[in-house]
Amino acid sequence: MNRNWLKWVVFFVCLAGVFLLGVALAFIVARKGETKLAPPVSLNIPENETDPAVWGKVFPREYGRFRMTEDTTGPTKYGGPSPFSWLERDTLLVFLWAGYPFSVEYNEDRGHAWTLVDVEKTARRDPARGGKPQSGVCLTCKSADVPGMMQEMGLEKFYSARLEEVLPKAKHPVACSDCHDPKSMELRITRPALKEALVAMGKDTSRLTRQEMRSLVCAQCHSEYFFPRETKYLTFPWKYGTSPEAMFKFYEEIGFSDWVHPVSGTPLIKVQHPDYEIFLSGPHAQAGLACADCHMPYIAEGGVKFTDHYVQSPLKNISNACKPCHEGSEDEIRARVESIQDKNNELLHRAEVALSDAHQAIASAKASGATDDQLKEARTLLREAQMYWDYVFSANSMGFHSPQEAARVLAAAIDLARQSQLAALSAQITAKGGK
């Protein structure tokens, strides 16, 4: 009798265990099911609406996260949202950019919410602080109101206008409408220069995949560009590709330079944030990832999964940006990234010293009587070297977007700069009557 009773106890315990396990599994499945992409909503956003607060009424989660780009605390080792001065941190920059507005002010970027304020306040456009008046093209990637201005004024007129003319028309920083169609929420390209560059490269912009678009909406602004002094028409130098060598070939073909260095007399190119170009050569792009995968990862709130619009360094969001793919603790992942950045920073400094030496060597040779013809080789080498260095320096991530490519390009910059220095020394010897 006791034995039969024990069997029934065991039976009911097992039954209860199976029941509880089933309940637990059902709860887990239910919870996972709750964490889904936000359901479609009724879109009533006007066609030309640029105010992110209006979009926020329809997409409060995304807007709330976008507002967090106002935060300027918590810098990373080599970047982050705190606007420190790179000119104070790296004093050789003032010399390398001498004669160009970047030698007056060059601060670490703040978040997207600050784009309009920062272009208004920069010393680079203030003659009283050593800057120079700027053209409307400088507003291209600073305000969501720019596409409307371009349509109203016409591209050529917008680009060539003085910045003071177009700034009063800009009411909002970079925001929702820059990347999203208000009717469908599909990603879109709103800056003509990128479309023109893609078409010139043979790309059909109507057949771009969503994953491609998750990088290209960033490439609208996070890319190298130039504009001819006469027309100010903003153009991406991608005719031969997106590598620094390909872009340098294009600049040589059209004889373009941004300014002439006052010490060496070398016509130089100022590279502007080529984040997309250097990313393309890196391991994350090769693995099929997009900019948004790391800088705007999916997050969940209230059981709803959505894209995080708090665009920031992945180092400030390692759990969502890195750990879905990478093993290790947050501290271990951060240490791996910073180790790569430390090595890149060391190479950057070596390149800066080599460039500085080359500028000084050319100036010394010129003072000794060397002619422009005798210094042509040294200046050509220095022009290429400084562009390659600036290609890595002016890109965000301190080389992390493409570590091997950054190291390769900086090695070329150092080599070319030292070749320039030797060519200047040779010209100096020749000028003094030597052989």
Class based on secondary structure composition and strand pairing: mainly alpha
Mean pLDDT: 92
Which percent range describes the beta-strand content?
under 5%
> What's the structural domain tally?
1
Question: What would CATH call the homologous superfamily?
Answer: Flavocytochrome C3, Chain A
Give the tags.
435 residues; mainly alpha; three-stranded mixed sheet; two-stranded antiparallel sheet; single chain; 19 helices
Brief synopsis:
With 435 residues, the chain is mostly helical.
Written description of the protein model:
There is one protein chain. This protein has 435 residues and is mainly alpha-helical. The protein is built from 19 helices and five strands. α17 runs antiparallel to α18, α17 (330-367) packs parallel to α19 and α18 packs antiparallel against α19.
